[in-house]
Every structure is written in C-alpha cells, then in structure tokens.
Specification:
It is built from ten helices and eight strands. It is an alpha/beta fold. Helix 5 crosses helix 6 and helix 6 crosses helix 7 (about 185-195). The longest helix has 24 residues, at about 255-275.
Length: about 280
Amino acid sequence: MDLLYRKLYAANSTKIMVLGGTCSHVTEQTALASYKYNMVQISYSAVSPRLSGEEFRWFFRVMAPETQLSDVRIKLLKEFNWTTITIVQAAEHLFSSTTEIMKERLKHNNITLNDTIPFEKYPQGAIEQLKKNDARIIYFSSYEDQARMACCTAYRLNFTGPKIVWIFPGFFDLKWYDHPKSNCTAEEILKVIDGYLTVSNVNMAEEDSEDNIGTSQKDYLERFKAKAVRDSQKEYQELLKSGREIQVAGEGRAPLAYDAVWAIALSLNSTLTDYIAEGIYLLS
C-alpha cells in the first residue's frame, strides 16, 4: 500500500491504470484505493471472490475467481461417486468465502459434508482432527506453505494411504510440494498426497498460437525462463548447471501476467488514440 500511495502522489506523473497485485488480500486493499483515484486496476492472479463485489467496479482480472471453480470440484466428486467430503480451510476471507460456496454446492448436489475444519496459521491441529475422524476425501483450502506444513504433519502422523484423497486449490505452483524451506522432503509430501487432485484455470492455450507481435508460446516460455535464470536467485543458476528442469516460482501464473500487460497496453493504445484525435494530451 505504501508503494502505491507513493506512486500516486509522485510529482509530474499521471497514473491511469494499475497492474496487480499477486495476492488477493493485497489486491483487495490496493483496488479500494485505486478506485478512489478513478483508475482501472487489472490483476493476473488475485482470485478472491470479494473482488467481484460492487465496491471493486473498476477492478478486472484475467484469472477466474476461486469460487467459480467450485462447480467443477462438484463434478469431480460426482465423477468418482464420492458422496462425502471434509473441508479444511485457512482462516482467511479468500478461503472461508470459497468454503461457503462449496457448502452450498455440496448441499444442492446431495453430497455430505462431514466436517469443516478451520485453522489460523498452523494446520497441525486440523490434520490431527482429520486422522481422528478417519477422513478420506479432503478439500484443503490454503496457501502453498500451509499445505506443505499440513502434508509434513500428515507424514509424521502416518496419515497416508491409497484411501485418502487430497484436493488442493488450482493456483499452486506446479511443484509446490518441493520447496527448500519445507519441514520435510518432497518425497515425504508426495507419499502423503500421491494422486492428489486440483482444479485450475487454463493459463495457456493448448495450441502454440502467437500474440500481436508474433511471439509464440514457446518463444515466450524460453524468454521467461532465461530472464528468471539471469535475474533471480542462485538456485536457478545451479539448476541450469546440473541440467535439471527449471521450475520458476509463479511460472504457472506468468502467462496470465503477460496477458494482463497486453490488455493494459491495448486498452491504453485505444484510449490514447481517441484522446489524441480529440486534442487531449496527458502528462507522462
């Protein structure tokens, strides 16, 4: 927020649009502020359903809100004839609002909700409750770091096996379970969540199409990873030397950020073209 305000009050500068943020809770605050300044804001990864409210009428996004994926999760449950489910959710608005939508959809489709287990910061107690209740189908709604903590706890409690199915949010990175700051190894987490399911947006078209300047998806991905290796942490340099596949943090959402920038560029180009034709000029 401090950075946004400093940019808004910068001398000799006209702000028209805002790109971002990444996290929903940050975007909610900045979108409330940008609206007061008559600025359009567009995000590439904020999925909070609250951002669809009337108070965010000048806010747009290129990623569907998390609640819109609830219907797909219901279809997934019905596809496998799963008639009961337990929900574990972090105690934040993004996850609690998603849970409320899920409850409505579950009731409408005659699927039994065994329990809803919220947790504040650390999910250890929630996992202990899951094991006590012998939960089988689990929708775990949280951020990645909390999901890793939950999986490490489940591993230590030996809460594993082929009869336990985990469903996670779709905005996690591709290899979210493999993180250097995790309390257990990726192999241990995979033992817990083997065969886990997720429902997510399609962030890149299946066909290798080109954008307005002829950049193909392959070209984009190569440029993106090359810049990440060039600009980012030492770990990417070491991965490159070892020949291992590089998974950049946020890589799955990066195409949406690219699309959001294009949306801003095209809209500004159209607007400025009209302004210039009418003899209206903005300070840069």
